[in-house]
């Protein structure tokens, strides 16, 4: 497995996003655990989750608990950097709400610590800006958690360039990651990616294949990805992730998966070599 870095931690170049295993349409637990174990067997050492990755109102942290169970039952579990997030909530009716208050973020972190069964969370990220709370206050809570040793690394998610710079300042230069949506269908985070490259901050594209419902349609929606995939005898999804990896050494895609074969195909993207001409074609999509 090729590796990259988040802060001072070396991680697999391709991570695993856990959300599909816990929200609407999720598989049974046995299949999810098999998917997580397949990822670990393939060398994945970064798993992304959040306390809001659940379906019903009474199961907050479902995905965190699932991941903790998978790691505890695998001999490589201790090698994994678990990245979780706080600041998003799911009332249980399918909607997503926000709470970026320092009080809530600190309570959410304590709950995540218990579910993950760790003394300090590997990477904790502020999930999404809350317009009712000053951004500095929310990031300040993450800084406090870092100073208190409750988290080892600090990141932010769904942030714009101004917020990235502000968070880096509030955290005293200790911002290690930015997790934003980025895919062939969603290119508006290019400025954030470039800024992360400039600052040496890891950029974690979420939904890099276009999201749960669209990932299978990537090849049909974007013909160049399908054509290049055919030339390499691989899937369009693998081409997509390989393309992201060459955009910058700070990029670590975190494709979601709920099947073993899906994450294994994604992991193989780290070994796919694209030509300069192919990269130029995909950049122009």
Structure, described:
The chain is an alpha/beta fold and 285 residues long. It is built from eleven helices and eleven strands. A hairpin with a 2-residue loop joins strand 1 and strand 2. The protein is globular, with a radius of gyration of 18 Å. The relative contact order is 0.14.
Number of strands: 11
Q: What strand line-up does the widest sheet have?
A: 3-4-5-8-9-10-11
Q: List SSEs in N-to-C order.
A: EEEHEHEEEHEHEHEHEHHHHH
Shape: globular
Q: What is the overall number of helices?
A: 11
List the helices and strands and how they pair.
Elements: E1 3-6, E2 9-12, E3 16-17, H1 29-41, E4 46-48, H2 62-72, E5 81-86, E6 88-89, E7 97-98, H3 102-116, E8 121-126, H4 135-147, E9 151-157, H5 161-170, E10 175-181, H6 190-199, E11 202-206, H7 218-221, H8 223-232, H9 236-247, H10 260-267, H11 276-283
Summarize the structure.
With 285 residues, the protein is α/β, with parallel strands linked by helices. The protein has helices at residues 29-41, 62-72, 102-116, 135-147, 161-170, 190-199, 218-221, 223-232, 236-247, 260-267, 276-283, and strands at residues 3-6, 9-12, 16-17, 46-48, 81-86, 88-89, 97-98, 121-126, 151-157, 175-181, 202-206.
């Amino acid at each position: 497995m090729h590796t990259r870095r988040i802060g001072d931690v070396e991680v697999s170049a391709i991570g695993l996003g856990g959300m599909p295993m816990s929200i609407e349409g999720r598989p049974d637990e046995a299949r999810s655990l098999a998917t997580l174990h397949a990822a670990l067997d393939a060398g994945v050492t970064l798993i992304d989750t959040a306390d809001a990755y659940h379906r019903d109102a009474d199961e907050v942290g479902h995905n965190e608990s699932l991941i903790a169970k998978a790691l505890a039952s695998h001999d490589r579990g201790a090698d994994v950097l678990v990245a979780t997030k706080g600041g998003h909530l799911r009332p249980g009716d399918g909607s997503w709400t926000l709470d970026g208050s320092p009080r809530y973020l600190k309570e959410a972190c304590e709950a995540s610590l218990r579910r993950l069964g760790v003394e300090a969370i590997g990477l904790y990220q502020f999930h999404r800006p809350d317009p009712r709370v000053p951004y500095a206050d929310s990031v300040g809570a993450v800084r406090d958690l870092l100073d208190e040793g409750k988290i080892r690394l600090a990141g932010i998610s769904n942030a714009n360039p101004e917020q990235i710079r502000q968070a880096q300042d509030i955290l005293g230069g200790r911002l290690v990651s930015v997790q934003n949506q980025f895919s062939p269908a969603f290119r508006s985070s290019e400025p954030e990616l470039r800024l992360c490259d400039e600052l040496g901050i890891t950029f974690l594209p979420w939904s890099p294949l276009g999201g749960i419902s669209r990932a299978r349609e990537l090849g049909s929606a974007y013909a160049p990805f399908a054509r290049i995939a055919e030339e390499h005898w691989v899937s369009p999804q693998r081409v997509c992730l390989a393309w992201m990896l060459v955009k910058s050494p700070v990029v670590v895609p975190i494709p979601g998966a709920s099947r073993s074969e899906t994450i294994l195909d994604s992991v193989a993207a780290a070994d796919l070599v694209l030509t300069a001409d192919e990269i130029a074609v995909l950049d122009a999509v």
